[in-house]
Every structure is written in structure tokens, then in C-alpha cells.
Write a structure and sequence with these properties.
The complex is a heterodimer of chains A (320) and B (277). Chain A is an all-alpha fold and 320 residues long. Chain A contains twelve helices and two strands, in the order ααββαααααααααα. In chain B, helix 6 crosses helix 12. Classes of the chains: A mainly alpha (320), B mainly alpha (277).
Chain lengths: 320, 277
């Protein structure tokens, strides 16, 4: 495609030729991304302003913001509010998502840093440890949810057995079914599964810190803890910030782990879970669209603020 | 002084042991459980005491699970081939050609890779119904492009940006067109990066759940994650833990082997996508 163009226009500068070729190289990818990302997103937003139902996708009428918030004045003069923005189930899901994301990412970052510091030290069997921590990462989320569901089983679960033997609990607990502990169960599995990812990203950051800095600190007799907080942490901060936002975005849209480990539990239901429930299972297609649109807006605002406030350089362009 | 060093060493290795046990134990226990049947499954054994392959026979001899595995293999492979094909040319343009709006385009691509999948679910559902792809593996190949393509473009761009500019200059002096530069000069150098990104995209497609759950409704069109999530017994109360554990082992072992073989490459690919950007 580019060849014929080049022969005809060889009076164009080399740079212009390359730019023209670049356009054609990018076009197929851009078309593909438009079809699977931009267009469906626009349609979702559109659906959220209609009363479309699952069985009649083209029969919806424009109803404005009614799915989000609708003010009804009853005949007796009382005012009633309806819509997602006054739906306690939605706000419960928002709260669950925020709680899940903040706690899981916090634990994953701290544990990931510890694992990364261990892997950054030189010791026998380091390769083995690195291979071992890759295992939770490689296991499909659904499989890990099922594995842990079995381990956390109230009657025959090994976790209850361990905790009983260690004297941590006095009677067997229904970890995933009990509303008080369901969130802990989900957090436990998520931390187990994604700490390796954090550790690897932290390790990459740690390996970019020149070794002689540590040597100098050692010669000066500075305590290792102080070295960590005064030297290592500031130096790996950029890498850490990027790792945290990647994980945070993953956590804010979590669906599969919660859907499989604690099905239909109001204590863990997140924004993604409640949106899909309305979209597909409850035949409230437009209402679910409104909720997924809100989730998208919340994430976009969060990312924008994070990049702006944290001055995170994601593209790597400025360094080049 | 020496004894303190010894204590430090012991503490360090204790930490190492805790990390390894914590990482490996759940999967180890899954394997142990998968070989226990009948009432043996309800005994809590920290060490393997049974070796009964009945669970594996149940799963693999079942009507649908072998088909689910085939579905997963086909969908993940096609998705990866499709994504790599589109990504190689695009990442050449993004990494090697200066043009206005390049930074913005890169940021857009990164933004798409972070999309909450639920936000496109309704629109994709409509598109798939419109194209008559519901319950077809192509529905999943199409929808998985949303996370595999941006990711492969992004990682391949960072790899290509680091290739020396002299190689390309020599080719340009020899009169090579951009297409020739990509296929004859860069592609041979890119093989390691292609293996890494391809593998990561494959794992992503193999593990995906939300789209697979929503765009398939028949047992034989499901992928393995959905099939495992839906495995049920004769009654609601009777969860078939044995077969679930066996199925889990079957779909996980190939991944673990791949990951361990390509350990270094995967770590490089993950960090290229995450840290350096």
C-alpha cells in the first residue's frame, strides 16, 4: 500500500513519506480499537439515557437523566426521588468497591515491597523464590477463587482447621457466607493473588537503584531502616506510583473474584458486579448502563486526579 | 556481633520460607484435594494420602469440559495472533516515526488498556447481537481485543523504541520502504518481545471471565473459567469439589509450566508494561 504512494511522490521528503506510512500502519489498529472500545462505550452511555430493555435493544426511548435521578411529585404533593444516585444498593456497592480497593492495594504494596526487598538481596535459592511467587500470578482468578472457596469451606476447609489448631478461633467459621467476614475472605484471596505482580514491579524499580549508593551508606554506618526510608523509597517512588495506579484501576473494576467467591453477598458486591446484575440478570439494561457509565466516570476522574496530583509520567516520553 | 548476624540470617531465611509456602500452598492443596474422592475429600490432609484419578476421569470424560478446553485454546490463540498482527505495524509507527499527537495517542491507548470492562459491556452486547455472534467464539475474540491490543501495542512500542537507530538508518540508505524495514529488519529482532507479549496476552485471554460469562449461554460454547465457575452437582447444596479441583489443576498446569519456562521474559514484559512505560 505504501509502496505505490512512495514512487509517485518521491519528491516528498523522507520524513513526510515516513509519516504517511505511519498513518497507514496505525489505521487498522485504530479502527479495531474504535470498534471494540470507543463505539461500545458511546452506546453504553447512550443506553443509560434511555429505557432500553435486554430483549428489545432498539426499542428504547430517550428519558434523559431518569436512570440517574428522577424527581417525582406525587398527587398528594410529596416529593419522591428515584434512580441510581439515590439507590442504597448502588452506594453500598460504591462503598464496597472503595473499601476493597484501598485495603487490598495498601496490603499488596506493603507486602510486595517486602517480597521485592527479599528478592533484591543476594542469597541461595533466589531463582526458586521468584518462580514460587509467580505461581499465584499465573493461576486464573476463577481457579484461585474456587481453590480458596474450598480452603475457606466452613465444614471441611483447611483454613478453619489451621486456625483451630493455632487457637486463633474457637469454632469453625463460614468465612465466605458470613456477612462480617466475606470481605476479609475476598481481600485475603486478592492479596494472595496480586502481591506477586506488585513485588515484580517494585523489584524492577529497586534494581534501577545503583548499588554504590548502598555501599556508601554502609560505609557511613547508616542504619538499614534509615537507608530504606531516606534513600530507597524516594528513588523507587516513580515506579511505585505507576504500580499503585495499575493495581488500583484493576481493583476498582474487580468482578470475577467477587462474583465467584461470594455470590450474591451484599457485603462484597462491587460496582461492576451490581452493574452486570442489572444489565443482564435483572433485565434493567438501561439502569445497569447508567451504573456502568458512572463507574467509568469515577475511574476517569480518579486517574486524572492521580496523574495530576502525583505528577506521574506514564508515557515515558519526557524522559527520552 | 557474629551471633547477631546469625540471627539476622535465620530471620531472613524464615521470611523466605514464609513467602514460598504462602505462595505455593493453596495450589499444592488443590492438587492434593483433586486426587481424593468420595468421603476421602472431606478429610483434611496436609500431605497427599490418596491417589485416585476418578475426579480427572469425571471431568475429562464429561460431555462438555473437553470442548470448553478446545474453546479456550482456540479463542486465546486467535486473539493473540490478531493482536500481534495489528500491534507490530502500529508500534513501529508509534516508536520510530515522529508525528504530531504521538504522545496523546499513546496515552489514549494506555487509557483503553485500563478501561473498566463493564463500561463497554452493554455496547459490546448490542454489537455482538447485531453481528449475530452471540454464543460464537468470535464474540470473545472480538471483545478480548479491547485488552490484548492496547497492551501488546504498548509493550512492543517500548521494546522497539530501544532498538538502535543505526540499523534503521542503514536500511533507509539502502532504499528500504517502511514496510520492508518492519518485516525484514525489525521483525527478526522483535521475536523475543513478540513471545513475551504474546504469552501475556494469551494468559489474559485464557483467564478472562466477564465477557465469557456474558456472551455465551450454552454449556458447549463456554470457556474453561466459566465452565469451572458453573460446575455444579445434582443439587445446589452438593458442590462437586473433587471435579472442580481437578478441572482447576488441568487448566492451571499448562499456564504454570509456560510461566516457569519463560520466567525471565515474562518479568521483563510485565515491568515494561508497568514501570518504564
Amino acid at each position: 500500500m505504501a509502496n505505490t504512494g512512495l514512487i509517485r511522490e518521491n519528491q516528498l521528503s523522507l520524513h513526510q513519506q515516513r509519516q504517511r506510512a505511519a498513518f497507514w500502519f496505525l489505521a487498522p489498529m485504530l479502527v479495531a480499537l474504535f470498534c471494540v472500545a470507543a463505539w461500545p462505550l458511546l452506546r453504553t452511555v447512550w443506553f443509560s439515557f434511555t429505557d432500553t430493555s435486554l430483549n428489545d435493544l432498539y426499542g428504547g426511548k430517550w428519558i434523559g437523566f431518569d436512570n440517574y435521578l428522577r424527581v417525582q411529585t406525587l398527587s398528594n404533593g410529596a416529593v419522591r426521588y428515584k434512580g441510581t444516585l439515590v439507590d442504597p444498593n448502588w452506594w453500598n456497592a460504591v462503598w464496597n468497591t472503595v473499601r476493597f480497593s484501598v485495603v487490598s492495594v495498601l496490603f499488596e504494596t506493603i507486602l510486595g515491597l517486602i517480597v521485592a526487598l527479599v528478592l533484591n538481596a543476594e542469597f541461595k535459592g533466589r531463582g526458586l523464590v521468584r518462580a514460587a511467587i509467580l505461581i499465584p500470578w499465573a493461576i486464573p482468578t476463577i481457579v484461585s477463587a474456587k481453590m480458596w472457596a474450598w480452603m475457606l469451606n466452613d465444614q471441611y476447609g483447611i483454613i478453619n482447621d489451621m486456625a483451630l489448631r493455632l487457637g486463633l478461633i474457637t469454632e469453625k467459621m463460614a468465612w465466605t457466607a458470613n456477612t462480617d467476614t466475606a470481605m476479609y475472605a475476598v481481600l485475603m484471596v486478592d492479596v494472595w493473588k496480586t502481591t506477586p505482580f506488585m513485588a515484580l514491579l517494585c523489584l524492577a524499580g529497586l534494581q534501577m537503584v545503583p548499588r554504590d549508593i548502598y555501599e556508601a551508606a554502609k560505609i557511613d554506618g547508616i542504619h538499614p531502616v534509615k537507608v530504606f526510608f531516606k534513600i530507597t523509597l524516594p528513588l523507587i517512588r516513580p515506579a511505585l506510583m505507576v504500580a499503585v495506579i495499575f493495581r488500583m484501576l484493576d481493583a476498582l473494576r474487580v468482578f470475577d473474584l467477587i462474583y465467584v467467591l461470594t455470590p450474591n453477598s451484599a457485603a462484597t458486591k462491587t460496582m461492576s458486579v451490581i452493574s452486570r446484575e442489572n444489565l443482564i440478570d435483572f433485565d434493567k439494561f438501561a439502569y445497569g448502563s447508567a451504573q456502568s457509565t458512572l463507574l467509568f466516570v469515577i475511574l476517569a476522574v480518579f486517574v486524572g486526579l492521580y496523574i495530576w496530583l502525583g505528577k506521574v509520567d506514564l508515557s515515558g516520553e519526557s524522559g527520552k | 556481633m557474629n551471633s547477631r548476624k546469625l540471627i539476622n540470617n535465620i530471620a531472613f531465611y524464615a521470611l523466605v520460607v514464609v513467602i514460598v509456602v504462602f505462595s505455593v500452598f493453596p495450589f499444592y492443596y488443590t492438587i492434593v484435594t483433586s486426587f481424593a474422592t468420595g468421603t476421602a475429600i472431606f478429610e483434611i490432609n496436609y500431605f497427599p494420602r490418596h491417589f485416585d484419578t476418578a475426579n480427572y476421569e469425571t471431568v475429562l470424560g464429561g460431555r462438555t469440559f473437553p470442548r470448553n478446553i478446545l474453546n479456550s485454546v482456540f479463542i486465546a490463540t486467535t486473539t493473540v495472533v490478531f493482536a500481534l498482527f495489528l500491534a507490530v505495524t502500529a508500534s513501529y509507527a508509534l516508536a520510530r516515526v515522529r508525528f504530531r499527537g504521538r504522545g496523546l495517542l499513546l496515552m489514549t491507548i494506555l487509557a483503553v488498556s485500563m478501561f473498566p470492562q463493564i463500561a463497554v459491556l452493554a455496547g459490546l452486547f448490542e454489537l455482538i447481537k447485531y453481528l449475530n455472534l452471540f454464543n460464537s467464539p468470535w464474540a470473545l475474540v472480538l471483545s478480548y481485543t479491547i485488552f490484548t491490543l492496547p497492551f501488546t501495542v504498548w509493550v512492543l512500542t517500548t521494546f522497539m523504541r530501544d532498538l538502535p537507530v543505526e540499523i534503521e538508518e542503514a536500511a533507509i540508505v539502502d532504499g528500504a520502504t517502511p514496510w520492508v524495514i518492519i518485516t525484514k529488519v525489525f521483525l527478526p529482532l522483535l521475536w523475543p518481545a513478540l513471545v513475551t507479549t504474546g504469552l501475556l496476552a494469551f494468559i489474559g485471554a485464557w483467564n478472562e471471565f466477564l465477557f465469557a460469562l456474558t456472551f455465551t449461554s450454552q454449556e458447549i460454547t463456554r470457556t474453561t473459567p466459566v465452565a469451572i465457575a458453573m460446575l455444579s452437582g445434582a443439587s445446589v447444596q452438593e458442590i462437586p469439589w473433587g471435579p472442580i479441583m481437578a478441572a482447576s489443576v488441568i487448566v492451571t498446569i499448562p499456564l504454570i509450566i509456560l510461566v516457569l519456562i519463560f520466567q525471565r521474559k515474562i518479568v521483563a514484559g510485565l515491568t515494561a508494561g508497568g514501570v518504564k512505560g
